[in-house]
Amino acid sequence: NPFKVPSDTELFSVRDKEIKKAQAEYEKRKTMKVHEKTTYSTKMKAKSRLRRALKREEEEEGRTEATCEERLEALQELLSRKLAMKKDYALDRETFHGYLQDRKQIFFLEYAIAVKREEIEKMQTIAKNEEEKLEKAERRMEKDAAMFDEFLKENHNNSVEALRIARKETSAKAKKITEIHGITTQIKKIQSDISRFEDTLEEYKMYRDILYQLSPREWQEEHRKRCKKRKDMSTEFRHRGILLLTFAGHSRVWSLLEQIQIPAESCQVCKSVPI
């Protein structure tokens, strides 16, 4: 029925029939004679038309989605107008071929739109995943930055505390060094005094020996007895834990004897040797 619009299935079946028919014509032309075949110029014109058609199809496929939709609407409107105009006319072969071309363009446009939509969805999915990764990376970076700031703060506090302790230790060390220097000076002074006192003691011992040699024998016997008695008393005092320094003429010895209530005569000290 030429007044009824065929379905898509019928259109594809018609296209297959035309392809088979074209193949049959091609096989038929192989067996045709030279004068029966078309000329070279006719073939070139057909090829040029085919190239233009293919180029036009490639340009149409490369359009953006909005342009494809607009062209689809325009073609649908044009097709509807053509169908409305063809209701009163018979559908010849050329008009049917144009209709097939329009349907083909519509199919290609719909396919291009579907492909572009699928690509857009894929790109949106990829962009969403990348945004999620970026957000996760930003959160990790913020967390690392916070941890690093905390580490720097703790390190600063530790450095301040270490500096404070170092200053305190340095001050204490300087104080101890000063004390050590003072004690060393005192030790040297005491050692000097000890050396001086030892020299004085040796001199006094020399004087004692000289005086002892010059003294009478009766006094020497009496002195030996006193020394023996003094030695016995010193042994007794040592057992009691008391140490007496017996230097002749030393005021501290006499005051110590008075404090412990021991008479000076009981401690036989030679008063003839001057200090």
Automatic annotation (TrEMBL):
One of its GO terms (cellular component) is cytoskeleton. This is CP100 protein. Keywords: Coiled coil. Transmembrane segments: none annotated. InterPro entries: CFAP_domain-containing (IPR051147), DUF4200 (IPR025252). Residues 99-216 form the DUF4200 domain. Residues 113-154 form a coiled coil. It comes from the Eukaryota. Residues 33-63 are annotated as: Disordered. Residues 44-54 have a biased composition (Basic residues).
